Amino acid sequence: MKLKNFTAVLLGVFLWAVCICSFSSVAEATGYIPKGEKNKASSSWKKNNTASADYQLNIGLANGVVQASVGMNSEYTVLDMASGSVLGRFKGNVLSVIIVSGNRLAINGKKVNSQSVVLKPINKLESNAVIYNGNKYRGALNVKINKSGSLLVLNNVTVDDYLMGTVPSEMSPSWSKSALEAQAVAARTYALYTKNQHSSEGYDLCTSTHCQVYSGIAKESPSTTLAVKSTQGYVMTYGGKPICAVFHSSSGGRTENAENVWGHYNPYLRSVADEDNSPNKNWTVSFTSAEMQKLLARGSKDVGAIKSVQMVNSSDRSAVVRFKGSKGTIDLSGVKLRSLCGLKSSMFTVRSGGRQIIFDGHGYGHGLGMSQYGAKAMAEKGKSWQDILKHYYTNISIDKMY
Ligand SMILES: [Zn+2]
Questions:
Q1: Which class for 291: exposed (0-12), middle (13-18), buried (19 or more C-beta within 10 A)?
Q2: Distance CA 141, CA 85 (A)
Q3: Are 119 and 75 in contact (CB under 8 A)?
Q4: Would you kindly state where each structural domain of the chain is located, as residue ranges?
Q5: In this structure, are residues 176 and 379 in contact, taking their beta carbons and an 8 Å threshold?
Q6: 299-350, pLDDT tens digit by residue?
Q7: Which of 345, 25, 375 is nearest to 171 (CA)?
Q8: Longest C-alpha distance within the chain, in Å?
Q9: Handedness of CA 328, 332, 337, 340 (dihedral sign)
């Protein structure tokens, strides 16, 4: 491995460590739900309540900004959120610049009697879109003063309008219909499960991989929009609550048990056989002994110059690797080594070849829940989205909630 790549791995390991400590995420690289987060989403969650706020999301487009350029693609008014009084009227695609002035907002340099404003179209049309930072979104736009006196920009959308902008970032819109539908239901379930993720900051979900990548209308694709619409309201549940519907790119042939990744049991995230035809079905990465020594010292323990590497336990994905060095010995799990070395998955065997330590691995991601490439393979064989989800999430129910 070249020095540049090695530095990139170290940086990657550092960033991964930062992410895993601070966040819970559906993204494969940081797919970690802290124990305490497990049932957070369910407290305000009710069945068959179409008008319920449970199926509306406040997405934090920006928090802590000093200025927000906002607008709509058709003529609109800016209203005070509390009273509903009209603060300004603007033409379509003309942006209003909002800043904080004292303890009030100012629109285009004019102070208004409001701390929270909302944009509303003059004519309600199907094609209405709000604009922030040059991006178009469905739903409404709310700009308010946050706790620290700067601006919070919120996009209030229905769950399904949100999914239209997230699913195409998660799975290629060119994939088969039932794979896209399975992805839409997994993303819907995960959004409801994590709904209170940012409640202390005044919104539900953010737009990055920390929650789910949400890019608004520009990213939408007809096939993924259809998958969201054809599965409208369907949510995976266990014990009557939305499940933690994590997913990953490819499993390497078998998905993982939750306890092997997170350290605690989960009844529906169980290891199942999986077909892996992905580009990452097999991969190989090697490090020099000196690079490996440095990685171990940085992320675990300095065992000195490495003398031997041995697989202690190689059953399924839960490998344990023993490193013997001039200063000591250490046993590390596959999950730990994955994070330490920036490997694509924790399913690998390790060998030494000359002065190299070589990892031969399979799959990409944490291995929990649905394998996306596996879902693709099942869809191509004619399986339904329900078949796919029930294969990857053990003993779950699929309920139509709205
Ligand atoms: Zn987030």
A1: buried
A2: 16
A3: no
A4: 15-42+161-276+367-400, 67-149, 283-361
A5: yes
A6: 889 999 999 999 987 666 677 999 999 999 999 999 899 999 999 999 999 9
A7: 375
A8: 75
A9: negative
Cα of 149 to ligand 1 centre, how many Å? Answer: 21
Proportion of the chain above pLDDT 90, given as a percent = 79
Q: How far is the CA of 23 from the centre of ligand 1 (A)?
A: 8
Contacts for 310 with CB less than 8 Å, ≥ 6 apart:
321, 322, 324
212 alpha carbon – ligand 1 mean position (Å): 7
Distance in Å, CA 152 to ligand 1 centroid: 14
**Cβ neighbours of residue 322 closer than 8 Å, sequence gap 6 or more:** 308, 309, 310, 311, 312, 329, 330, 331
pLDDT digits 0-9 by tens, 122-132: 998 889 999 99
Residue 90: strand pairing partners = 76
Report residue 179 CA to chain centroid gap.
18
CA of 44 to the centre of ligand 1 (A): 19
